[in-house]
Design goal:
The structure is a single chain. By secondary structure, the protein is of the alpha+beta class. It folds into two domains: 10-77 and 152-222 and 330-389, 3-Layer(bba) Sandwich (FAD/NAD(P)-binding domain); 85-148 and 224-327, D-Amino Acid Oxidase, subunit A, domain 2 (D-Amino Acid Oxidase, Chain A, domain 2, 2-Layer Sandwich), CATH 3.30.9. The protein has helices at residues 17-28, 63-80, 98-113, 123-129, 152-165, 209-213, 293-306, 354-369, 394-405, and strands at 10-13, 33-36, 52-53, 87-88, 91-95, 119-120, 140-144, 148-149, 169-171, 176-182, 185-191, 194-197, 200-203, 223-232, 245-248, 253-258, 261-266, 273-274, 317-327, 334-338, 341-348. The strands form four sheets. Strands 5, 6, 7, 14, 15, 16, 17, 18 and 19 form a nine-stranded mixed beta sheet that branches. A six-stranded mixed beta sheet has the order 9-2-1-13-21-20. α1 runs parallel beside α5 and α2 packs across α5 (152-165). The chain starts with 9 loop residues before the first strand and ends in a 6-residue tail after the last helix.
């Protein structure tokens, strides 16, 4: 059994993609880091992520963080001689209305601003890339050629292996019971294996982040909101190897290829949200929410998708996956310190882009802790940006759910 150290520079709680990336970035900066998880690396909601790494987001401030993740993937693959399962298939953004055309043109402008490779494509090329898509309603389509998706579980494992090479100590199956403070200064954590002392603690515990922080009167603005996607039966004629990811805002749908099948998500009008104490603390495959939603949501929201995928209801579905995304009311991450609580840092509130932004989040948190110049402006992500609120209240959780329901970009 691995011995847990008694004193380190930084403790990171949670070994998903964000926690492992943060530990790696900190260790690269010379910090002695302990990474803790109550289960296994990447075994929580990370393992259930659809993991679309779309580089262009309607919230511009996320783009540099996602670009950093792409850079990190190249580095950790080289360091560890392992692959993260990255599939570079590109993303097609499809517009079928004047409203979404305006938004698509804004997306293209952002891509150009950040030197992200893109081009408008015609119906003929679109039909070749996506054989099942009815292009009759198309007003405009743009192809972001370099976009990828990954296996988020593997990404977390490779980040962790890179972190170990930098000296990070990882203790799995170790539950953090509380964060320790003395006169509003962090001095460590209490775990099921004893106390560990450190002047800095990063709360990257995802849906359970507030379980720890609220014990010290630190409300983190985010809530656990259900994510859901389905995977069709295999059909390599409809879903060929070169099939790109696809975002269709007019149908509130995103999709990506999945080994000859199609993985697709339909945006719910009112995604279920959960109090952390009502969530299973250990990874499992249970369906979250009303079991009737497995097929009821397809019947309810699939009709709009059928306008673009005429054979949609003829396709068999072999699996449905539910997981938890930690959403915020404004759709931005929650990152950084809390006023008056020295040494505490939050790295959560991924708003459906946690895998894509994990490397950038890790770098930003590491720069904050080591007091270096920050590579992005942290203001949009401030933990105290909503003033006084109760993150456990049904009203606040509903605001977070609404943010997911209103999201238009992919992943």
């Amino acid at each position: 059994m691995k011995i847990i150290p008694k004193i380190v520079d930084v403790i990171v709680i949670g070994a998903g993609t964000i926690g492992t990336a943060t530990a790696w970035h900190l260790a690269k900066k010379g910090q002695k880091v302990l990474l803790l998880d109550r289960n296994q690396i990447g075994s929580g909601n990370t393992s259930k992520a659809a993991s679309l790494m779309t580089k262009v987001r309607t919230k511009e401030e996320l783009i540099p963080l996602i670009q950093e993740t792409y850079n990190n993937i190249d580095e950790i693959e080289q360091i560890t001689n392992q692959k993260v399962g990255k599939k570079e298939v590109g993303t097609l953004h499809f517009s079928a209305s004047e409203e979404t055309k305006i938004n698509l043109d804004k997306t293209v402008a952002l891509a150009n601003k950040y030197h992200i490779k893109n081009r408008y494509i015609d119906k003929k090329e679109l039909m070749n890339l996506v054989p099942w898509l009815d292009t009759q309603t198309m007003l405009e389509a743009s192809f972001m050629e370099d976009d990828s998706f990954v296996d988020a579980y593997v990404l977390a494992k490779v980040f962790a292996d890179a972190a170990i090479k930098e000296g990070v100590i990882i203790n799995q199956n170790t539950d953090v019971e509380s964060i320790l403070f003395n006169n509003n200064q962090v001095y460590g954590v209490k775990t099921t294996k004893g106390e560990v002392h450190a002047p800095n603690v990063v709360d990257a515990a995802g849906a359970w982040s507030n379980d720890l922080s609220l014990k010290e009167n630190i409300p983190i603005p985010m809530a656990a909101v259900r994510s859901i996607y389905w995977i069709t039966e295999s059909n390599k004629d409809l879903f060929p190897e070169h099939h790109p990811m696809l975002v269709i805002p007019d149908a509130n749908v995103y999709s990506r290829p999945e080994n000859g099948s199609l993985l697709f998500g339909l945006r719910e009008e009112n995604s279920p949200h959960f109090h952390p104490k009502h969530l299973n603390r250990f990874p499992n495959s249970d369906f979250l929410g009303n079991p009737d939603d497995r097929w009821g949501l397809i019947e309810k929201y699939g009709r709009k998708f059928q306008e673009f995928f005429p054979d949609f209801f003829d396709m068999g579905v072999k699996n449905v996956i539910t997981g938890i995304s930690t959403y915020t009311p404004d759709g931005y991450y929650t990152l950084g310190s809390f006023p008056g609580k020295k040494g505490f840092y939050a790295a959560t509130g991924c708003a459906g882009a946690g895998v894509a932004g994990s490397g950038g989040i890790g770098r930003l948190i590491a720069e904050m802790i080591t007091e270096e110049s920050l590579f992005v402006n942290p203001e949009p992500f401030r933990i105290d940006r909503f003033g006084t609120f109760d993150p456990m209240s049904s009203d606040f959780r509903q605001r977070c759910s609404d943010a997911r329901s209103n999201k238009k970009d992919g992943g």
